[in-house]
Design brief:
Layout (H helix, E strand, L loop, with lengths): L2 H38 L10 H17 L8 H16 L5 H4 L4 E7 L4 E5 L2 E4 L7 H14 L10 E5 L5 E5 L9 E5 L8 H7 L4 H12 L4 E5 L5 H9 L8 E5 L11 E5 L13 H8 L6 E4 L6 H9 L7 E5 L3 H13 L7 H11 L2 E7 L5 E13 L2 E10 L15 E3 L7 H6 L20
Parallel strand pairs: 7-11, 7-12, 8-9, 8-10, 10-11
Antiparallel strand pairs: 1-2, 1-6, 2-3, 4-5, 5-6, 12-13, 13-14, 14-15
Helix pairs in contact: 1-2, 1-3, 2-3, 9-10, 11-12
Amino acid sequence: MSLADRVRAARAADTTIEGQRLEMRQDLRRRLHYKVVEGLGPTLYDSQLSDAELKLRVMEMLEWALDQEESVPLARPDRLQLLQEIADDVLGYGPIDPFLTDHSVTEVMVNGPHQVWVERNGILHLTDTRFVDATHVERIIEKIVGQVGRRIDESTPMVDARLPDGSRVNAVIHPLAIGGPFLTIRKFAVDPFTVDDLIQNGTLTAQVAGFLRRCVLGKVNVIVSGSTGSGKTTLLNVLSSFVPDNERIITIEDAAELRLNQVHVLGMEYRPPNLEGKGAVTIRDLVRNALRMRPDRIIVGEARGGEALDMLQAMNTGHDGSLTTIHSNSPRDTLSRIETMVLMAGMDLPIRAVREQISSAVDLIVHLHRLRDGTRRVTHVSEVLGMESDVITTNDLFLFDYGMGIDEDGRYLGRLKATGFRPRFAEHLEQNGITLSPELFEPEPFQARPR
């Protein structure tokens, strides 16, 4: 055998040995994790225990369980690392725990056990973090959804949930997830974003923020629209903060995310069906019930189905100042989406009647877009004017100026600019004691958009 062949054979043997060691370590990790969960049982969920006491008990149980194992000899550094990894699994969320406490990370995406992505400043990054196997990911998912009383299994392989801090969670497992399980966690700041934060980030200008504050105070019905991850819920939370303290606010969400500081807030959350497929309470059920609770404001986290019809009826029957979000690509698409969702309610209504309802109910559409540089910007503030023939007409009050170009770091220099149109609902605001300065809508020149 030549020297090169001997070297290749030695490397192959080393790779095989290393693979065997890794497999033995993973088997050991699974056994220890099972022993700790089985040994401590209900103690893991005992609310009387402090975090420090619970961690101490877990570590003691781990030390004991590891001492019973003789099949895998470990050096002290490896032993400590293994103990910490299993403790993270039992007490936290395993390998992704550091990302959940890292304030620079806004989203965590697990694409199966061996691929974890994170989002920082709007840009996706592939990490070196790995799970042991698919079962390891499933255990973390089951822990997350179990904390909010939901379930995930082969009969219900998709679930929406939330972490204790309000972060939004979506999980998909076998048989739907090919190469999965898949886990997506959209984090929220420890301190909710304020309007000043959005102005500083360039999401909107102080001029537009002042206009939106007056719209909310004056009970204008506002739709916040945009694509996934464009910042709709964040902006909705900021707009909701403008509602006066003396009003009764009812929030309706798929998974509770809004954090309002007013005194009189009632929050309701969608409930999925039980094991028998019964007992579901939909967003539409909650909107209908909210109308019987004497609300001053109804805030729906996201309209995505037949509840859009009930929202329109609420807006048209004296519940002015309602707020909600809708997935769409533009303000015009927002109106089309509302049409589609109203038809999903199962009512046999003519299209013209639906459009009349929309044009009468919706006053303002605030549209967000996540730009190529990763930033989230308000790109349109559009008023819904009414009907002309069979078409709903809109008017752009503020538009994002893309023509201002980008800087050397690839960041957009553009901002929202007034188009010169004054909203027709200005008279409605004046009746509520709110005036809009003419300077607010002073038109600004737009730069030619580069080709």
